[in-house]
Amino acid sequence: MNRKALYWLCNIGGWMLYVLAYGLFLPVYRGQSSQVLWLLFTIFFFVLFFSHLYRYLIVKFRWLQMNVVPLIPRLAVSTVVISSIFGFLTVYVQVFLAALNTAQDTGAIAIGQDVFVRTILGYILIFVLWTVIYFAVYYFLNYKNAEIENLKWQASMTEIELNKLKSQLNPHFVFNCMNSIRALVDENPGKAKEAVTQLSNILRNTLMMGRNKLVPLSEELKVVEDYLGLESIRLEERLQVKMDIAPDCLTFEVPPLMIQTLVENGIKHGIARLTQGGLLQIKASLTSGLLHVEIRNSGHYKGNTESETGFGIANTLQRLTLLYGDRATFRIANESPETVVTKLNLPVS
Amino acid sequence: MRALIIDDERLARQELKSLLAPYHEVEVVGECANADSAVLKIAELQPDLLFLDIQMPGKNGFDLLQDLEQVPEVVFVTAYDEHALRAFEVNALDYLLKPVQAQRLAETIRKITTREKAEIKESSPVNSQAELLRETDQVFVKDGEKCWFVKLEDIRLFESEGNYVRIFFQTNHPLILRSLNYLDERLDPKVFFRASRKHILNLRWIEKVENWFNGGLMVTLRGGEKVEISRRQASRLKEMMSL
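ok -> structure tokens follow
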């Protein structure tokens, strides 16, 4: 059942019950049962009209979404106003009917002030009850929905986090490493031990990536070296590495795992795809306060054709913009048909 | 069973070899580091079984299989390849995840040996070049995300489409990169009939044959495909069917 139908069912049904109960307790109207029916009908339609008007106000002014403190006075005022109008109306209807009954002029029937006060207070009570029921039902229905929404939101957040982690960890790399290490345990236990340490270091850095906004280049290069160490276990003679780092760069602060990601891209999409393998070169230098990093790898860059590469690049660009605005530059290009160069310029943050 | 290991990483090949060492039913006859050398090795060694890595430099594992006209049994060995594994759930013999678990490998070997026993081998391959493809030989077909190992006996119809041939089996009709003339030379003429310039059909899949215009025939296959046969070929077909 939808909410609108539920509202109408409850509102009409509720008021019908109220009017019936009212009719039962009415002093038997001097034998005028048809007039009693008229009175009850009138009350029923008035009350339906006013309660609907009240709901209209609640919906229109978004009181359902309001906090309790500003909500209470609004509800109080509207309850009193609506009950008063409704009270006066019903009293006059009764007077009118009574006048008809006794064939008197309506003006001749005196109405005591206490009649108004009693009627209006009674209606205030009833409308307060209506409000309580209305809001209770609303909150009850929404509580469930809100809970579901909340769970959904949490699930999607977890998924986003997981995907981020997965893309950082690169499962293909991790499992291939594990496999190589297994083989190394027999062949070269010393190298196997070293590989386990290197892999641990990379995993630790990946997991703590969010912790530090920036790390010294020396630390980043340590991770890059560990990563290259593991890749050369897998690729063996197919991977050759040349590093040329100016000593004054080592304390320069860089975003963690950014250079590592770019190196990984160069291997994953470049060297690892070549049957003969290739050369990876990393250069870093400092000029007028800017850090220049150049990564050269064998291979050919085909632009954003592969979604995976696109993701790595998009991720790097996004991180750079977040950290440096437009003060950092980054681009990948084919330097020659067989060499791809990735250039990264970082300012002091 | 004679097995060939194809993986670009030496250590990965070695690890698999050492895992396979205890199994006498599987003999590792060779290893290759890339698809191109594997094609030559397969032709030379005629292995019954391939342990194949999917991600390799140059051509990957799927490309390699597509290059083979006759595909041995294949066990995929991969580190992490969600897409590939999904594609293969259909009917790969098996796949192993790196690092390979000894227990899992034992299962795979059991699967292979039971399958080998179940299959009645007509003859052991003698000379690959001169020999025709057998009905039980399988080809590897990749169509977008989906992959199949298809036995020739399951293929109802080959239809020429430019440089490609569309094959019809079950409810699938993917393209393979072969010419119809090439297939005509390699397929067993007792089973596969060259119906026209565009079609080769599997005689075992014929449902009914009707007379058609100008002394030709219209053949309906059990998959619902209809193939028209010219008068000249029709007399040949009648001859074959009456045998």
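Strands of chain A lie at 215-216, 239-245, 253-254, 278-287, 290-298, 329-336, 339-346.
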